[in-house]
Amino acid sequence: xxxxxxxxxxxxxxxxxxxxxxxxxxxxxxxxxxxxxxxxxxxxxxxxxxxxxxxxxxxxxxxxxxxxxxxxxxxxxxxxxxxxxxxxxxxxxxxxxxxxxxxxxxxxxxxxxxxxxxxxxxxxxxxxxxxxxxxxxxxxxxxxxxxxxxxxxxxxxxxxxxxxxxxxxxxxxxxxxxxxxxxxxxxxxxxxxxxxxxxxxxxxxxxxxxxxxxxxxxxxxxxxxxxxxxxxxxxxxxxxxxxxxxxxxxxxxxxxxxxxxxxxxxxxxxxxxxxxxxxxxxxxxxxxxx
Length: 290
What we know:
The protein is mainly α. The protein folds into two domains: 48-155, Tetratricopeptide repeat domain (Serine Threonine Protein Phosphatase 5, Tetratricopeptide repeat), CATH 1.25.40.10; 183-290, no CATH class. The protein contains 13 helices and no strands. It has helices at 2-28, 32-61, 65-78, 83-95, 99-112, 117-127, 138-151, 157-169, 172-185, 190-202, 206-220, 254-261, 269-287. Helix 3 runs antiparallel to helix 4 (83-95) and helix 4 (83-95) packs antiparallel against helix 5.
């Protein structure tokens, strides 16, 4: 009985000591007014961030890239971890021709989020830009595209770009495999058909090349729906491939798709050799830099 009483008293003393310790710790916490002040300061930072971010977005959309870069930089001073701000800042730097700053910005984004498929994809596009000798690196581009594909297998963009890499290396069968994979997921991919046509042309299969060439033209200029009613996948402009002139940065084969868009759809046959010969010469020149 005495033993039980002693244990009970010991437990009470332990609880009392714990409560006293808790009170002592609580007394060291800053008073409520400090917490309130900190919250107000954080709110101000958030407001400042969004003010500069929205301003940067407006500048970017209106083509004022230098102003956009400054505004995104200011926004990041208030939230250096914001992924969208970093992503678009990298895009803006690229438009300004500041390729090394673009690279560093996307690398920073990947440090924050290693699973940012879009950052890996943009780095891949940067490294495949043969006109930028400081960053042109086929192996690095392939690594980034593969990483983007691993992260998001549903998107065909990285698969298409891996086909680009294979073409640059002269690996026609590998390129064909990638382009077929793209078509399997996106049957309206103009680039996949066009470049697959080149592969067939290069391998001495003119009939297949012409079929693929015509299919690329078909989806570049889709037929208008009956009575002007748009169906799923149709676009109001009638183009399933974007031919925007707003960007100074062009991806490898954009100009060839533009040439395709200007061709006479009624009789593609006489035009196919001239365009694929031009593409062939283009690839040979790039391979000299690899």
